[in-house]
Each structure stands twice: as C-alpha cells, then as structure tokens.
Task: inverse folding
C-alpha cells in the first residue's frame, strides 16, 4: 500500500497547555511556531509516523513578563534548549475516531515517553480543493519529569506553579 504524507496547517492549528497558578486557577499558553508531519498508509492513521517540533522562544501566555521568565534558565532555558520535539512510537486505534498516540517527548534536555488521547474529526475538502484532516489531542505531563523544577512556596501553603501540565492541542493537516 502506498504512503500518504500530511503536513500541518499552522494557521488552523494550536499547540496549547494549562498549568495551575497558586494551586487554584489555570494559566494557559501556546506555542506560536511549530511544525508537524504525518506519514500514513493510505488514509488510515493507525501506526502512522508522526513528528512534531515547536520553537520554545515562541511560547506565549499573554503576559510578556511571564513569557520572559518561562524562556529563562528557571524554566525552559530557551537559549540552551530551543525546541520541544515529539516522535510517535505507536498509534493505536481505540474506537471509531479515537486513538492513543504514544511517543517520545524531548524537552529541556530530557526525553521521556508520553501517551496522548487523540480524537480524529475526519477529513474534508476546503474551498481550494485541499484535503484536510482534523485532530484534537489531550494529555498530561509532570513538568518536573523534564527538569522544569522552579517554584516558589506560598505563604499560606502550597506552591506558585503546579507540577501537572495539561496539553490541549487542535490540529489540521493537509494531504500532500
């Protein structure tokens, strides 16, 4: 069977995350610059090869001071570790439109396995004749597993930044 390559449509995709601030509210952020590709057997995404790269210096939380702190050595150390990368090791169809994508996430000099839930929205042609495929991915990681340890104790107990990071990803791919 022939392979099909899909490339990300960055104008209709979002790589987002949420983390607890002061243990009771979430702060959201996203990567502004990223690239991803899928190579699959025909139009079946099970066992597809998936690769993603994001530019750490493109992180945006809507607050310049916070973004600057995230880029510093306290967190991502963007000067030393300029990218976040993911390479799938398996893609398993769980049910109609539902997949489990496992792979290696490289961040801040560490590579660790992660599994993401993927919801496949289907395929459709856009007004210009391009075939598009849509996915929503979600998962959780512990930032300390990647050496992102900075924190500050709160006077009332607890810490300023939560350890769990929720990944919220919306993707559109274009069939090549």
Result:
């Amino acid at each position: 069977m022939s392979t099909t390559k899909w490339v990300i449509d960055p104008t209709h995709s979002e790589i987002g995350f949420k983390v607890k601030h002061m243990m009771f509210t979430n702060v959201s952020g996203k990567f502004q610059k990223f690239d991803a590709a899928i190579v699959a057997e025909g139009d079946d995404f099970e066992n597809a090869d998936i690769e993603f790269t994001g530019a750490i210096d493109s992180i945006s939380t809507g607050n310049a001071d916070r973004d600057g702190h995230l880029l510093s050595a306290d967190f991502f150390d963007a000067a030393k570790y300029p990218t976040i990368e993911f390479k799938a090791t398996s893609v398993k169809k769980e049910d109609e439109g539902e997949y489990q994508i496992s792979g290696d996430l490289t961040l801040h000099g560490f590579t660790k396995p992660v599994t993401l839930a993927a919801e496949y929205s289907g395929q459709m042609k856009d007004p210009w004749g391009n075939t598009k495929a849509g996915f929503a991915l979600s998962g959780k990681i512990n930032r300390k597993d990647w050496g992102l340890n900075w924190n500050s104790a709160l006077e009332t107990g607890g810490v300023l930044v939560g350890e769990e990071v929720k990944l919220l990803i919306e993707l559109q791919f274009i069939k090549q």
Observations:
- Residues 57 and 68 are 9 Å apart (CA to CA).
